[in-house]
Design brief:
This protein is of the alpha/beta class and 342 residues long. Helices cover 42% and strands 17% of the residues. The longest helix has 22 residues. The chain starts with a strand and ends with a helix.
């Protein structure tokens, strides 16, 4: 069977596909795997690191007109390349980069599956969900359809990976600015590092802004650019301050960690704000909007969570209601079931 994944630009679109690839490969050895993504992108880099055949496309993202034109152009170019591969299954996590491949899937009547990580439908889900074989969701949507299954985010399922359960002696505050990084969150973290006690420490994942702020690192304030062991880092932390990307939130909830969310104000359709509102409504996090960031207030929230056992327990129990185990395995089982009689 030939399986093609697509979805890119941010880790939230890429890592669910990577976890599915790892899960599928561990169980079915004779499949062939490909990835359609943007040229010179994060997804291309990750595919090279994992020896996944990469099919690059180009999307001009200056505005909606240039996006639409290049999507149409790339869908025509991609048709010949896909006809040579002859895929059996297409799995996408959304974004404009997925659209040319999904146009091809419809044209050739190939089974395709969508993964919607957010609490609101993105453009790919809106355009292509109706004819998808199944749509796999992290959280239940307001308008559920018959072909939708809530599996949770496959990012959380690790194949052939031994989780490091070692703990730090200090109360660890993990701060995540998202796969693209955040100057606002970096600034907050630097200011917060001067407020914490000797028994506390901050670990900041700064992404592309690492070189700009690495000089602020000190004994109880560690700054890293990137980690491929995010699960270990979350698991070893006592509290997490994070953006509201679905993959990151899913990982934090999976490990039942107290969570303070600072959603990005610049995402399409405000999906990070919607994600954050959903999580807060379910008593699984505290939300702070960027315009309301005040370091002393954040430190007071951290201290309250640290010292209030009942508050932490309430958040943990609420998170347990949202998380689901083995989402990648469940998605694989659904797909195997769909092809059982083919």
């Amino acid at each position: 069977m030939k399986i093609i994944f697509s979805g890119g630009k941010t880790g939230g679109h890429i890592y669910p596909n990577l976890r599915l690839y790892e899960r599928f490969k561990s169980e079915i050895n004779n499949n062939m795997y490909y990835y359609v993504g943007l040229k010179d992108s994060l997804e291309e880099k990750i595919c090279k690191e994992n020896n996944i055949s990469f099919e690059p496309i180009y999307i001009d993202e200056r505005n909606i007109l240039t996006k639409s034109f290049t999507v149409y152009k790339e869908s025509r170019i991609l048709t010949k390349r896909m006809d040579d591969i002859k895929p059996d299954v297409i799995i996408t996590t959304g974004g404009f980069v997925s659209i040319p491949l999904l146009i091809y899937a419809r044209k050739r009547k190939i089974k395709y599956y969508l993964i919607e990580e957010n609490v609101i439908s993105g453009i790919t889900t809106k355009l292509f969900a109706k004819k998808a074989k199944r749509v796999f969701l992290t959280f239940e949507l307001e308008n559920m359809k018959k072909n939708m299954e809530v599996t949770f985010n496959p990012t959380v399922e690790l194949s052939n990976y031994k989780l490091d359960h070692s703990k730090t002696n200090k109360f660890r505050i993990l701060i995540l600015g998202g796969s693209l990084g955040s100057k606002v969150i970096n600034k907050m973290a630097i200011e917060l590092s001067s407020k914490i006690s000797k028994n506390e420490e901050i670990v900041l994942v700064s992404s592309r802004y690492y070189k700009e702020i690495k000089e602020y690192e000190k004994d109880n304030f560690k700054i890293i650019e990137y980690t491929n062991k995010m699960h270990d880092l979350i698991n070893s932390s006592n509290i997490v301050i994070s953006r509201a990307g679905s993959s990151t939130i899913s990982e934090i909830i999976f490990y039942l960690k107290p969570l303070i969310i600072i959603p990005s104000e610049k995402t399409k359709a405000n999906h990070q704000i919607k994600n954050a509102e959903f999580i807060v409504k379910n008593d699984s996090a505290v939300m702070i909007r960027e315009k309301n960031i005040e370091v002393m207030s954040i430190y007071e929230i951290i201290t309250n969570i640290k010292n209030d056992d009942s508050y932490r327990l309430k958040m943990k129990l609420s998170q347990m209601k949202l998380k689901k185990d083995k989402p990648a395995s469940k998605i694989l089982e659904y797909i195997k079931e769909d092809f059982k009689n083919v």
